Amino acid sequence: MPGKNQTIISEFILLGLPIDPEQQNLFYALFLAMYLTTVLGNLTIIMLIRLDSHLHTPMYLFLSNLSFSDLCFSSVTVPKLLQNMQSQVPSIPYAGCLTQMYFFLFFGGLENFLLVVMAYDRFVAICFPLHYTTIMNPQRCLSLVALSWVLSTFQAMLHTLLMARLCFCADNVILHFFCDMSALLKLACSDTQVNELVIFVMGGLILVIPFLLIIVSYVRIVSSILKVPSIRGICKAFSTCGSHLSVVSLFYGTIIGLYLCPSSDNSTIKETVMAVMYTVVTPMLNPFIYSLRNRHMKGALERVFCKRKPLSFL
Ligand SMILES: *[C@@H]1O[C@H](CO)[C@@H](O)[C@H](O)[C@H]1NC(C)=O
To answer: Does the keyword ATP-binding apply (predicted)?
Structure first.
C-alpha cells in the first residue's frame, strides 16, 4: 500500500437517497408507511398460517417462511434508512456495516432459495398430484427449508469474510442508502479482484441456477396441463401458480435488471431506484399478491377474525 499515515476507517457515511432536502419529509413518511405495511402484511400472513389449521400444508408453510424472510430482509435496511434520514451525520460503524451486509445477503439469498422450493412444491402438486403428500412429507419440507438456510448462510458468510479482508483507508462515503457490496467495493483501497470474481461466480450460481430451475418447473407444469387440456384444470393451475409467478418476476426482474443492464457512469440513481424496488417495494407487495388473489387466505382471515365475533355482537 502506498500511503504511510493513512488512517484506517472506523465508520462509514451513508449518503442515502438522492432527493432534495425539501422532499426529505415526504419521502420519510412514504418509506415509514411502506415499512409499516410490510411488517403488518407479513406478520398477518405468518399469524394466519400459524392459527388456521386448514393452512398447514407445505405450500402455506413455505409461504410463511417467505413472509418471515421478507420481513427480515426489509428490516435490515429500512429502519436504518429512516434513522439516517432524520440524523445530521448519517454514519454507520465499520462492524455495523459488515453486519448489515451479512444479513442483507443472508435474507436475500433465503428469499431466492425459498422461491425455488415453492416452485418445486407447485411442480410436484401439479405434475404428480397423486404422490404429492408422500413426496412433500413434513421431513422433506423441513429439510428443504433447512437447506435454504444453510446455503444462504454459506454465501453470505463467504462474501462478508472476503469483504472483511479488505482495507478501507481514504474515502468513507458510501453512495447508497445501505452497505451494499458493490458500493463498498468501490471504496476499498486494497485489491478487489478476488471479491469481484467471487461475486460474479456466486451471483451466477445463486441467481441463474434457481431462476432456471423455476423456469424448468413452470415449463413442465404448463406442458403437463396442456397434455390433458380442460378449462377447469387450466384455471386451477393458474390460480395456484399465478401468484407465485408474479412474485418470482418481481424479484428476479429487479435483480436481473440491475445486474445485467449495462451500467453507465451516471447509474447511481438507477441503482438506487432498483435497490428501493427490491428492499422496500417487493417485500411489501408479496403478502398482498398472495392473499388478495387467494380464497384460502381470505377464508382463513374470516375464520380467524370472526371466530369470537358472534358472541360479542349478540
Ligand atoms: C417454515 O417451514 C417449515 C417446514 O415446512 C415449518 O415447519 C416452519 O414452521 C416454517 N416457519 C415459519 C416461520 O413459518
So the answer is: no
CA distance 117 to 292: 22
The ligand 1 atom at the shortest distance from the C-alpha of residue 68 is: 13
Burial class of 28 by CB neighbour count within 10 A (0 to 12, 13 to 18, 19+): middle
Q: Which amino acid is at 189?
A: C
pLDDT tens column, 187-234? 888 888 899 889 888 888 888 888 888 888 888 888 887 877 777 777
Residue pair 248/257 in contact (Cβ under 8 Å)? The answer is no
What are 93-140's pLDDT values in tens digits? 999 999 999 999 999 999 999 989 988 898 898 888 899 999 999 999
Ligand 1, pocket-test mutation among 42, 65, 139, most atoms within 8 A of CB: 65
pTM value?
0.87
CATH topology of domain 11-313: Rhopdopsin 7-helix transmembrane proteins (1.20.1070)
- Expressed in angstroms and rounded, the spacing between residue 68 Cα and the centre of ligand 1 is 9
Q: Which residues pair with 92 in a beta bridge?
A: 12
